[in-house]
Amino acid sequence: MEFKLPKLGENVEGGDVINIMVSKGESVTKEQPLMEIETDKAVIELPAPIDGLIKELHVENGDSIIIGQLLVTFDADGKQPSKSDEQDVSEPGISEIKEVSQETVKEIKAEEQSTNNEPEIEDANVISISKKEEDSEVNKIDIVPASPSVRRLAREIGVDITNVAGTGPGERITENDVKEFAKSNLSTTEAKKSTTAKKTEVDQTQKSGGLIEEMNKVRVLTADRLTQSWKAPHVTQHDKSDITELEKLRKQYGDQVKQAGGRLTMTSIVTKIASQALVRFPKFNCSIDMENHQIINNNNYNIGIAVDTDRGLLVPVIKNADKKNITEISVELTDISERSRNKKIKVDELQGSTFTITNLGGIGGTYFTPVINFPNVAILGLSRSAIEPVYTDGEFKPRLMMPLSLSYDHRIIDGADAIRFLRWIIEGLENPFFTLLDS
What we know:
The protein is an alpha+beta fold and 439 residues long. Helix content is 36%, strand content 22%. It has helices at 83-90, 94-116, 131-135, 148-156, 175-184, 188-207, 217-229, 244-252, 254-259, 266-280, 326-341, 415-430, 432-438, and strands at 2-4, 14-20, 27-28, 33-38, 43-47, 52-57, 64-66, 70-75, 234-242, 286-289, 294-297, 303-305, 307-309, 312-314, 317-318, 355-359, 378-382, 386-392, 395-409. Strands 9, 12, 15, 16, 17, 18 and 19 form a seven-stranded mixed β-sheet that branches.
């Protein structure tokens, strides 16, 4: 039985193999972990689909894989392979592949000759087998499902057809596929120049004693998303909330929430209040589509919570926060935060946020300007609370003040709307009963 990489989640096309937990010839049981795959932000454990013997592992640690790629071949009988079986495992169907590949070459060659008398088998990237390889082993067979005219078009406009995904029947590459690829990607020549420039840069850095470090998938995704987010014109509003009484309530009911399996933190309290604010101010819960000049109003109130991990910043999501009480939010937040740090978070738990909260209070700082988490249009930052003298009822009193920073997309949110939204949250923190009256 062949086990291929299944679909891992929405918009997830593949990942990296970071930990293979079994070996060739090992007997496994159904649901036994085989390997760990790191996607853009989550680490996923792939279980064995059946009881059986591992005849062959087709990937290694560090390999990048895509959906549908062959990972493991199983022997469902669970018997140790004989020498002849081992030969079959190490060289699966070589003679058959040779026969099929040679027939395919002949067919394509005949097709090209009948079309334009240009039998350019090698130039068409149909197959690449040296004489030495034919005598020993076929290392790579790369058959491109495209007609001669499509291949000719690709050559003329400088597109490497082996990089083009086909949308025609049987994933056959069409002229439109080549044209679309050319519009959205660099040509082969430009890509080679970019690669050469990068190599030269790395070489020079190494000569000067610099250290080259590859970005992990979390950092790459973070960089891409923040670059996309930065296209929005950001504005940040700052304010403070008097949480003196709220902190007393948090400590008073902390044990009750702890018994339920969570921690009653300021983040979980703000998450609940923010979800109610989003219902009251729906503009902060939308997305914007500038290409079509549309505002996308979200029906769900899903709060993303920024979590600091050793791999970088992850943003697990509290789904439908408006329908959950603070205890439920606290329990869920405790769970997803721990699993984010332990690489056990699921892909779908990192998707679908409509608003984001980031809390740096546990580390320090007074104010900061958080960057919007695309495609959200707003993000709320919390900083460290501190005792300050506040003039109240004719005298200065020590009060616990928490700084708040609200960044928003000025294309859709105006300053007046932003300060109203932020003041509503502050009122909810200073007087929880207020949210019951106004939500």
